[in-house]
């Protein structure tokens, strides 16, 4: 069997951080991976008067989305999606979930049939009473086996080599080990578990909890309240998974980075929490705050709250998830934020 050719699809804050790890690891494991080039798809835009692809390929830094972090020189930015995945056998999906659908429209029927994929995207696909994790969506649309990676992973901390852990929910153990080689470093520990759905759902649902934690910060309710929100949020996450995805493993919530640890890190310092706090204190819409505070990076939590609301409403189960429901109503329907804890 030939060496795996990696392609990274997405080049935001997390996409760029993961490109750094992958670019270095293909050299370290060049018995497994082709180390000559790691193509990364860049949604082309101008930044400080230059094309972002040109900046990345010349300065070896994504100055817009991950400034001050050098990328290995084998990470090559490409503006054309199909050119990025040409010949690739190991596809890494890492873009804000809002853009996955359009990307799959372009890729359908165009990727190597022997390829494997992994998604690092945090979100869920909802269509009325149907819900799907993105690993299944990618697998079904592209006809390739797709695993999922998620964990307590603030991108800037991982990119600057501060000790972190993550979880891969694998499709097959062999694939899990291959992905582990691509991402693990001395300071980025990758655990493996046979639970694609559990890992994916933890990553998606914790973003709703992180928005609630930001509301608590904005209200200045203090640490007891925030801890309570994390606890209630984790229980709603677990309850949701066990109600709608029968095979998820309890370890994914309680023992893996993807579960409890990601709830903690996101609620302490993630973008969703920071922007939700500003929503309470700043009297501005989430759209305005995203633009002002995140320099092109994208919020996921309020959109996942809406997706989950649509799904739970269609299933007539809103009452069983009061925290998720409150986050939706505060974010999208003008419910006063002080109502967050009422009835929890
Ligand atoms: N940033 C983190 O700390 C972090 C950590 C773990 C997981 N994640 C997850 O990884 C995923 C990707 O997050 P990120 O931080 O890399 O992205 P990001 O929030 O930095 O988003 C910006 C990216 O979106 C792209 N983009 C903007 N408009 C677009 C369009 N119309 N079509 C396609 N792409 C467009 C930009 O080019 C840029 O690459 C998300 O699901 C996120 O929840 C993020
Ligand atoms: O900054 P957030 O809120 O998008 O969270 C980032 C990561 O998902 C934390 O693990």
UniProtKB/TrEMBL annotation:
One Gene Ontology cellular component: cytosol
Keyword Flavoprotein attached: no
Domain Glycerol-3-phosphate dehydrogenase NAD-dependent N-terminal: 5-174
GO BP term, pick one: carbohydrate metabolic process
Signal sequence bounds: none
EC number: 1.1.1.8
Coiled coil ranges: none
Catalysis: reaction(s): sn-glycerol 3-phosphate + NAD(+) = dihydroxyacetone phosphate + NADH + H(+)
GO molecular function: glycerol-3-phosphate dehydrogenase (NAD+) activity; NAD binding; protein homodimerization activity
PROSITE patterns in UniProt: NAD_G3PDH
Binding positions (substrate): 122, 271-272
Residues the record lists as binding NAD(+): 10-15, 43, 99, 155, 271, 298, 300
Domain Glycerol-3-phosphate dehydrogenase NAD-dependent C-terminal: 195-341
Residue positions of the active site: 206
Cross-referenced InterPro entries: 6-PGluconate_DH-like_C_sf, 6PGD_dom2, G3P_DH_NAD-dep, G3P_DH_NAD-dep_C, G3P_DH_NAD-dep_euk, G3P_DH_NAD-dep_N, NAD(P)-bd_dom_sf
Entry keywords, A to Z: NAD, Oxidoreductase
Record keyword NAD present: yes
Superkingdom as given in the UniProt entry: Eukaryota
Residue ranges of the TM segments: none
Classification via Pfam families: NAD_Gly3P_dh_C, NAD_Gly3P_dh_N
Enzyme class: oxidoreductase
Protein family per UniProt: Belongs to the NAD-dependent glycerol-3-phosphate dehydrogenase family.
NCBIfam families found in the cross-reference section: glycerol3P_DH
The protein's name in its UniProt record: Glycerol-3-phosphate dehydrogenase [NAD(+)]
Organism field: Kwoniella heveanensis BCC8398
């Amino acid at each position: 069997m030939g060496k795996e050719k990696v392609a990274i699809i997405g080049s935001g804050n997390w996409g760029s951080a993961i490109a750094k790890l992958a670019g270095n690891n293909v050299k370290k494991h060049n018995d497994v991976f082709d180390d000559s080039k790691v193509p990364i798809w860049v949604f082309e835009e101008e930044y400080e008067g230059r094309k972002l692809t040109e900046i990345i390929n010349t300065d070896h830094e994504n100055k817009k989305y991950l400034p001050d972090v050098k990328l290995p020189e084998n990470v090559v930015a490409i503006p054309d999606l199909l050119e990025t995945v040409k010949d690739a056998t190991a596809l890494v999906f890492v873009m804000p979930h809002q853009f996955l659908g359009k990307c799959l429209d372009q890729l359908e029927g165009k990727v190597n049939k022997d390829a494997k994929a992994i998604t690092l995207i945090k979100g869920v696909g909802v269509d009325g009473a149907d819900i799907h994790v993105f690993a299944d969506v990618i697998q079904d649309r592209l006809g390739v086996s797709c695993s999922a990676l998620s964990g307590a992973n603030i991108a800037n901390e991982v990119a600057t080599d501060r000790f972190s852990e993550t979880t891969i929910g694998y499709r097959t153990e062999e694939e899990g080990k291959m992905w582990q080689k691509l991402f693990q470093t001395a300071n980025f520990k990758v655990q493996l578990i046979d639970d694609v759905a559990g890992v994916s759902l933890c990553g998606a649902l914790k973003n709703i909890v992180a928005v609630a934690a930001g509301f608590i910060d904005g209200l200045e309710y203090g640490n007891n309240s925030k801890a309570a929100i994390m606890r209630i949020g984790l229980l709603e996450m677990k309850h949701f998974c066990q109600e709608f995805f029968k095979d998820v493993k309890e370890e994914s919530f309680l023992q893996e980075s993807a579960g409890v640890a990601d709830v903690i890190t996101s609620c302490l310092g993630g973008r969703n929490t920071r922007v939700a706090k500003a929503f309470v204190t700043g009297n501005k819409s989430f759209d305005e705050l995203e633009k002002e505070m995140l320099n092109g990076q994208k919020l996921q939590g309020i959109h996942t709250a809406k997706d989950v609301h649509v799904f739970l409403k269609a299933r007539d189960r809103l009452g069983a998830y009061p925290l998720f429901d409150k986050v939706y109503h505060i974010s999208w329907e003008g419910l006063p934020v002080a109502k967050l804890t009422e009835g929890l």
